[in-house]
Specification:
Helix content is about 50%, strand content about 10%. The chain is an alpha/beta fold.
């Protein structure tokens, strides 16, 4: 059966999200250099000795801040406006004139005008708009060529939709919704037969899931006819398997009924289907805590680890460390480490969970499991970035496959890294899962944690886990 083609974006070298920052930085440099140049030039022509550059740099930075703040408010630096061929002469001159008047007012108010000569200030006031307009003309020429040659794009955005809706997206729509003239697109089937269409759509969605994982995509835009509820349900179910922010775009009928101004700062007429689990800053904070605490734990617990390894080796034949494949963030597999506490080392399609008084548990293994010492090697998984200290506990692959089929919400657990402990475990939902009801309760607690994450919540879970280990509830 033919598989859907996977699109690529090899020609993209610059993200459309960076354009406002690049253009505003260019204007800031023009203003700064104009201020310093005007000051030094005036002093040279007037026969003065070159003075300190610091006051001119301070004046230039203040002027840049005022001017760029005002221009940014009107969308001046956004890709859609910046790519238009007409230079905004009136807007630049008016805003710069207001900037000059504000600078003169501040100089009078704070009595700092003695540090700047009137000639230098007038030169700065006249030269700067010429530089700003000249750079604006050059950037518009460069942007128009970059758009034509597909140099600017978004590698972190994917568009999924009906072929008719995708074809109806013009460059104006793309710049408004995506912030770039193009992005990777996955088109759903246009089969007439419902069964054939659904089968083709599932193949496309599977390819989309693989592409998102392999290319570290951050956002998915969905564009479908708003009356197509069957496809909405299918897409929503697939979204649970990938940790990515997803937004629903207006279809072409809705767009023709609405008049609005595009703005990269204002995502108009979009509906959030799924938010990203954690922001970049939140992931950074959580990762930092994982590295620091797991390193300290391995350092201070090294005597316990050593004695445990010796006891396991003396007690029964077999390796000290038990390795088992688990699913981590975004469904990626990894090998989880534990101290071996059983006579078996199951890691296949059939895995029998431990029960109370399980004969497979070794003599040393019983107290290790009761005190959760067998879990300590997972600090290595945390340091390697495969796990986190706090998160949903990972299950064996065989159990994962069963739970994903039985529970629609189960796949959401892979939207964050699995943890050594979690909100479910410190609330008593630990140990074996003898029935689907146990799994439902655990998934409910895990999803609450994902949707309400905070650094303080992680600290609370660590404290509660300590007391939970002392209680030895469901640990056997």
């Amino acid at each position: 059966m033919e598989q859907p083609a996977v699109p690529t974006r090899d020609s993209v070298v610059l993200s459309g999200n960076l354009i406002p920052y690049v253009l505003s930085t260019a204007d800031a440099l023009i203003i700064l250099f104009s201020c310093v140049g005007a000051g030094l030039g005036y002093e040279y022509l007037a026969g003065y000795r070159a003075s300190d550059l610091l006051p001119y740099c301070a004046l230039g930075l203040l002027a840049a801040f005022i001017h760029i703040s005002r221009m940014s408010g009107s969308g001046y630096y956004e890709l859609f406006d910046s790519a238009k061929p007409t230079v905004e002469i009136t807007e630049v001159v008016v805003v710069w004139s207001m900037t000059g008047l504000l600078l003169a007012f501040f100089a009078f108010l704070f009595k700092v005008s003695v540090f700047f000569s009137r000639g230098a200030f007038i030169g700065f006031y006249v030269v700067t708009p010429v530089g700003l307009l000249g750079v604006r003309k050059l950037t518009k020429y460069w942007l128009s060529n970059a758009l034509v040659h597909d140099v600017i794009g978004r590698r972190d955005v994917v568009i999924l939709g009906d072929r008719t809706e995708l074809d109806a997206l013009d460059q104006r729509d793309m710049l408004g919704f995506v912030g770039a003239p193009s992005a990777v697109q996955f088109a759903l089937s246009d089969e007439c037969d419902p069964n054939a269409r659904e089968a083709a759509d599932r193949r496309t969605l599977a390819s989309l899931s693989n592409f998102v994982r392999q290319n570290d995509c951050r956002e998915l835009l969905v564009i479908l006819p708003w009356h197509d509820s069957a496809r909405f349900d299918l897409v929503r179910d697939y979204l649970k398997t990938v940790p990515i922010a997803a937004r629903l775009l207006p279809d072409m009928r809705v767009r023709t009924l609405t008049s609005y101004v595009w703005s990269a700062r204002q995502r108009v007429l979009t509906v959030d289907i799924q938010r990203a689990p954690l922001t970049a800053m939140e992931r950074l904070v959580k990762r930092g805590m994982d590295i620091v605490l797991s390193s300290l734990a391995l350092l201070f617990l090294s005597p316990v680890l050593l004695l445990t390894a010796v006891a396991i080796k003396i007690d029964s034949p077999g390796p000290v460390i038990f390795k088992q494949s688990r699913k981590g963030f975004n469904g990626k597999e990894f090998v989880m480490f534990k101290f071996r506490t059983m006579t078996v080392q199951e890691n296949g399609p059939d895995i029998v969970q431990a029960v109370r008084n399980d004969p497979r548990v070794t003599r040393v293994g019983k107290p290790l499991r009761a005190a959760s010492i067998d879990e300590l090697p997972q600090f290595l998984n945390v340091l390697r970035g495969e796990m986190s200290l706090i998160g949903p506990r990972p299950h064996a692959l065989a159990h994962d496959s069963y739970f994903e089929k039985a529970l629609r919400e189960y796949a959401f657990r892979h939207h964050v890294k699995p943890g050594m402990t979690g909100w479910a475990q410190c609330n008593g939902a630990r140990g074996a899962t003898p029935s689907l009801e146990y799994v439902k309760e655990r998934v409910k607690l895990d999803l609450w944690y994902i949707n309400n994450w905070s650094l303080w919540l992680d600290v609370q879970i660590l404290i509660k886990t300590f007391f939970e280990v002392l209680r030895k509830r469901n640990a056997y």
